[in-house]
Amino acid sequence: MDNILNISDLSKTYQSAGRTLTVLDQINFSVAVGSTNAIVGPSGSGKTTLLGLCAGLDRSTSGTVELNGINLNKLTEDQRAQVRNQHVGFIFQNFQLLPTLTALENVMVPLELRGEKNIKARALDLLDKVGLSERSHHYPLQLSGGEQQRVSLARAFSNAPRILFADEPTGNLDAETSDKVIKLIFDLNKEAGTTLVVVTHDPELAAKTQRIIRIKGGKLIADEKTING
Ligand code: ADP
User: Where is the ABC transporter domain (predicted)?
Assistant: First the structure.
Protein backbone atom coordinates (compact mmCIF):
# COMPACT_ATOMS: atom_id res chain seq x y z
CA MET A 1 0.00 0.00 0.00
CA ASP A 2 1.15 3.56 -0.65
CA ASN A 3 2.31 5.70 2.23
CA ILE A 4 1.04 9.21 2.74
CA LEU A 5 3.64 9.89 5.43
CA ASN A 6 7.25 8.72 5.72
CA ILE A 7 9.24 9.75 8.79
CA SER A 8 12.98 8.95 8.74
CA ASP A 9 15.48 9.44 11.56
CA LEU A 10 13.45 12.36 12.82
CA SER A 11 14.95 14.29 15.73
CA LYS A 12 14.05 17.52 17.45
CA THR A 13 16.17 19.31 20.01
CA TYR A 14 15.72 22.58 21.87
CA GLN A 15 18.45 24.73 23.37
CA SER A 16 17.56 25.81 26.86
CA ALA A 17 19.79 27.51 29.45
CA GLY A 18 22.90 26.45 27.53
CA ARG A 19 21.81 22.81 27.41
CA THR A 20 20.48 20.71 24.56
CA LEU A 21 17.13 19.10 25.26
CA THR A 22 16.38 16.14 22.96
CA VAL A 23 12.61 15.95 22.61
CA LEU A 24 12.49 13.46 19.72
CA ASP A 25 15.28 11.00 19.06
CA GLN A 26 15.63 9.27 15.68
CA ILE A 27 12.00 8.39 15.03
CA ASN A 28 11.12 6.18 12.04
CA PHE A 29 7.69 5.12 10.80
CA SER A 30 5.41 5.30 7.78
CA VAL A 31 1.67 5.77 7.56
CA ALA A 32 -0.38 4.01 4.86
CA VAL A 33 -2.94 5.94 2.84
CA GLY A 34 -6.40 5.64 4.39
CA SER A 35 -5.17 4.05 7.63
CA THR A 36 -6.05 5.01 11.20
CA ASN A 37 -3.17 5.46 13.66
CA ALA A 38 -2.87 6.44 17.32
CA ILE A 39 0.21 7.91 18.96
CA VAL A 40 0.26 7.29 22.71
CA GLY A 41 2.75 7.86 25.52
CA PRO A 42 3.28 9.64 28.83
CA SER A 43 2.91 13.38 29.15
CA GLY A 44 6.04 15.19 27.95
CA SER A 45 7.19 12.26 25.80
CA GLY A 46 7.15 14.31 22.59
CA LYS A 47 3.79 13.37 21.02
CA THR A 48 2.60 16.91 20.27
CA THR A 49 6.02 17.84 18.92
CA LEU A 50 5.94 14.77 16.67
CA LEU A 51 2.46 15.58 15.36
CA GLY A 52 3.48 19.18 14.66
CA LEU A 53 6.50 18.00 12.66
CA CYS A 54 4.41 15.47 10.69
CA ALA A 55 1.87 18.18 9.83
CA GLY A 56 4.52 20.70 8.83
CA LEU A 57 3.63 23.10 11.67
CA ASP A 58 7.23 22.98 12.84
CA ARG A 59 10.61 21.96 11.46
CA SER A 60 12.80 19.06 12.57
CA THR A 61 16.40 19.44 13.77
CA SER A 62 17.42 16.45 11.65
CA GLY A 63 15.79 13.65 9.70
CA THR A 64 13.00 13.95 7.17
CA VAL A 65 9.23 14.21 6.96
CA GLU A 66 7.75 13.28 3.60
CA LEU A 67 4.05 14.12 3.37
CA ASN A 68 2.11 13.10 0.28
CA GLY A 69 5.42 12.68 -1.57
CA ILE A 70 6.71 16.13 -0.57
CA ASN A 71 9.85 16.48 1.55
CA LEU A 72 8.79 19.14 4.09
CA ASN A 73 12.38 19.84 5.18
CA LYS A 74 13.18 21.42 1.86
CA LEU A 75 10.31 23.89 2.02
CA THR A 76 10.11 27.44 3.35
CA GLU A 77 7.54 28.21 6.04
CA ASP A 78 5.18 29.66 3.40
CA GLN A 79 5.50 26.57 1.24
CA ARG A 80 4.79 24.34 4.24
CA ALA A 81 1.67 26.43 4.96
CA GLN A 82 0.60 25.83 1.37
CA VAL A 83 1.03 22.06 1.72
CA ARG A 84 -1.02 22.20 4.94
CA ASN A 85 -3.77 24.21 3.22
CA GLN A 86 -3.95 21.68 0.41
CA HIS A 87 -3.60 18.32 2.10
CA VAL A 88 -3.78 18.53 5.88
CA GLY A 89 -6.49 18.90 8.52
CA PHE A 90 -5.47 19.56 12.12
CA ILE A 91 -7.50 19.62 15.31
CA PHE A 92 -6.25 20.63 18.74
CA GLN A 93 -7.24 19.69 22.27
CA ASN A 94 -8.10 23.33 23.00
CA PHE A 95 -9.90 23.80 19.65
CA GLN A 96 -7.95 26.96 18.67
CA LEU A 97 -10.89 28.78 17.15
CA LEU A 98 -10.52 32.51 16.52
CA PRO A 99 -12.53 34.10 19.39
CA THR A 100 -13.57 37.22 17.47
CA LEU A 101 -15.11 35.24 14.61
CA THR A 102 -18.40 33.33 14.59
CA ALA A 103 -18.52 29.56 14.03
CA LEU A 104 -19.37 30.19 10.37
CA GLU A 105 -16.53 32.70 9.91
CA ASN A 106 -14.04 30.33 11.57
CA VAL A 107 -14.94 27.65 9.02
CA MET A 108 -14.81 30.20 6.17
CA VAL A 109 -11.21 31.29 6.94
CA PRO A 110 -9.36 28.37 5.28
CA LEU A 111 -11.77 28.43 2.32
CA GLU A 112 -11.06 32.14 1.89
CA LEU A 113 -7.30 31.54 2.16
CA ARG A 114 -7.49 29.08 -0.69
CA GLY A 115 -9.44 31.61 -2.77
CA GLU A 116 -12.42 29.30 -3.18
CA LYS A 117 -15.88 30.32 -4.40
CA ASN A 118 -19.27 30.06 -2.65
CA ILE A 119 -17.47 29.91 0.65
CA LYS A 120 -20.45 30.83 2.82
CA ALA A 121 -22.60 28.04 1.40
CA ARG A 122 -19.72 25.57 1.68
CA ALA A 123 -19.01 26.57 5.29
CA LEU A 124 -22.72 26.17 6.15
CA ASP A 125 -22.67 22.70 4.59
CA LEU A 126 -19.66 21.75 6.69
CA LEU A 127 -21.33 23.03 9.86
CA ASP A 128 -24.42 21.04 8.93
CA LYS A 129 -22.27 17.91 8.61
CA VAL A 130 -21.13 18.27 12.22
CA GLY A 131 -24.72 19.06 13.34
CA LEU A 132 -24.15 22.74 14.07
CA SER A 133 -26.01 24.68 11.38
CA GLU A 134 -28.14 26.30 14.08
CA ARG A 135 -25.09 27.61 15.90
CA SER A 136 -23.40 29.19 12.87
CA HIS A 137 -23.66 32.79 14.17
CA HIS A 138 -22.44 31.98 17.67
CA TYR A 139 -18.99 33.03 18.83
CA PRO A 140 -16.69 30.35 20.29
CA LEU A 141 -17.30 31.52 23.88
CA GLN A 142 -21.04 31.06 23.36
CA LEU A 143 -20.51 27.41 22.45
CA SER A 144 -19.87 24.37 24.65
CA GLY A 145 -16.52 22.56 24.45
CA GLY A 146 -18.03 19.82 22.30
CA GLU A 147 -19.60 22.34 19.95
CA GLN A 148 -16.29 24.21 19.63
CA GLN A 149 -14.52 20.95 18.81
CA ARG A 150 -17.15 20.19 16.16
CA VAL A 151 -16.60 23.67 14.63
CA SER A 152 -12.88 22.94 14.56
CA LEU A 153 -13.64 19.62 12.83
CA ALA A 154 -15.77 21.42 10.22
CA ARG A 155 -12.83 23.78 9.70
CA ALA A 156 -10.39 20.86 9.43
CA PHE A 157 -12.66 19.09 6.90
CA SER A 158 -12.98 22.23 4.74
CA ASN A 159 -10.10 21.35 2.41
CA ALA A 160 -11.16 17.70 2.13
CA PRO A 161 -7.80 16.78 3.70
CA ARG A 162 -5.94 13.65 2.66
CA ILE A 163 -4.71 13.33 6.24
CA LEU A 164 -6.18 14.52 9.53
CA PHE A 165 -3.90 15.07 12.52
CA ALA A 166 -5.72 15.31 15.83
CA ASP A 167 -3.95 16.24 19.08
CA GLU A 168 -5.97 14.96 22.06
CA PRO A 169 -9.24 15.77 20.25
CA THR A 170 -11.36 14.50 23.15
CA GLY A 171 -9.10 15.68 25.99
CA ASN A 172 -11.44 18.49 27.05
CA LEU A 173 -14.75 16.74 26.40
CA ASP A 174 -17.20 14.70 28.49
CA ALA A 175 -17.76 11.05 27.54
CA GLU A 176 -20.93 11.59 25.50
CA THR A 177 -19.56 14.53 23.50
CA SER A 178 -16.30 12.73 23.03
CA ASP A 179 -18.16 9.79 21.42
CA LYS A 180 -19.80 12.19 18.95
CA VAL A 181 -16.47 13.76 17.98
CA ILE A 182 -14.80 10.34 17.62
CA LYS A 183 -17.64 9.17 15.36
CA LEU A 184 -17.25 12.23 13.12
CA ILE A 185 -13.51 11.62 12.81
CA PHE A 186 -13.92 7.93 11.93
CA ASP A 187 -16.81 8.68 9.53
CA LEU A 188 -14.43 10.97 7.65
CA ASN A 189 -11.98 8.08 7.39
CA LYS A 190 -14.68 5.67 6.17
CA GLU A 191 -16.47 8.02 3.77
CA ALA A 192 -13.58 9.99 2.29
CA GLY A 193 -10.67 7.64 2.97
CA THR A 194 -8.95 10.35 5.00
CA THR A 195 -5.88 9.02 6.83
CA LEU A 196 -6.01 9.61 10.58
CA VAL A 197 -3.15 10.21 12.98
CA VAL A 198 -4.40 10.91 16.48
CA VAL A 199 -2.49 11.64 19.67
CA THR A 200 -4.53 10.45 22.62
CA HIS A 201 -4.55 9.43 26.27
CA ASP A 202 -7.90 7.74 25.75
CA PRO A 203 -7.43 3.94 25.48
CA GLU A 204 -10.89 3.54 23.93
CA LEU A 205 -10.06 5.97 21.14
CA ALA A 206 -6.65 4.35 20.58
CA ALA A 207 -8.28 0.89 20.41
CA LYS A 208 -10.59 2.08 17.61
CA THR A 209 -7.60 2.73 15.32
CA GLN A 210 -5.72 0.08 13.32
CA ARG A 211 -2.34 0.78 14.85
CA ILE A 212 -0.79 2.15 18.03
CA ILE A 213 2.61 3.85 18.03
CA ARG A 214 4.10 4.25 21.50
CA ILE A 215 6.49 7.09 22.32
CA LYS A 216 8.49 7.38 25.52
CA GLY A 217 11.21 9.92 26.31
CA GLY A 218 11.29 11.02 22.66
CA LYS A 219 11.85 7.49 21.35
CA LEU A 220 9.49 5.18 19.49
CA ILE A 221 9.28 2.15 21.79
CA ALA A 222 6.52 0.10 20.15
CA ASP A 223 4.53 0.02 16.93
CA GLU A 224 1.66 -2.48 17.03
CA LYS A 225 -1.40 -3.39 15.02
CA THR A 226 -4.67 -3.43 16.97
CA ILE A 227 -7.43 -5.97 16.33
CA ASN A 228 -8.65 -3.58 13.59
CA GLY A 229 -5.27 -3.59 11.86
P1 ADP B 1 3.62 15.44 24.90
O2 ADP B 1 2.74 15.89 23.77
O3 ADP B 1 3.97 13.99 24.80
O4 ADP B 1 3.07 15.78 26.23
P5 ADP B 1 5.40 17.55 23.98
O6 ADP B 1 5.75 17.23 22.58
O7 ADP B 1 4.37 18.59 24.23
O8 ADP B 1 5.01 16.19 24.75
O9 ADP B 1 6.72 18.00 24.75
C10 ADP B 1 7.87 17.18 24.81
C11 ADP B 1 8.97 17.90 25.56
O12 ADP B 1 9.43 18.98 24.77
C13 ADP B 1 8.54 18.47 26.90
O14 ADP B 1 9.56 18.22 27.82
C15 ADP B 1 8.40 19.94 26.60
O16 ADP B 1 8.68 20.70 27.74
C17 ADP B 1 9.47 20.15 25.54
N18 ADP B 1 9.18 21.28 24.65
C19 ADP B 1 8.12 21.39 23.81
N20 ADP B 1 8.16 22.55 23.12
C21 ADP B 1 9.29 23.21 23.55
C22 ADP B 1 9.91 24.46 23.23
N23 ADP B 1 9.37 25.28 22.31
N24 ADP B 1 11.07 24.78 23.87
C25 ADP B 1 11.62 23.94 24.76
N26 ADP B 1 11.09 22.75 25.11
C27 ADP B 1 9.95 22.38 24.52
Answer: 5-227
Q: Find the distance separating the first CA and the last CA of the chain, reported in whole Å.
A: 13
CA of 46 from ligand 1 middle (Å) equals 6
Alpha helices, DSSP H, located in 88-195: 103-113, 119-129, 145-157, 175-192
- Which candidate, 130, 160, 126, places its Cα nearest to that of 146? 130
Residue owning the nearest CA to atom 5 of ligand 1: 46
| Mutation probe of ligand 1 site: the residue of 11, 14, 220 with most atoms within 8 A of C-beta | 14
Question: Could you tell me the domains of the chain?
Answer: 33-59+77-225 (3.40.50.300)
Which atom of ligand 1 lies closest to the CA of 46? 6
ipTM of the complex: 0.97
pTM for this structure? Answer: 0.94
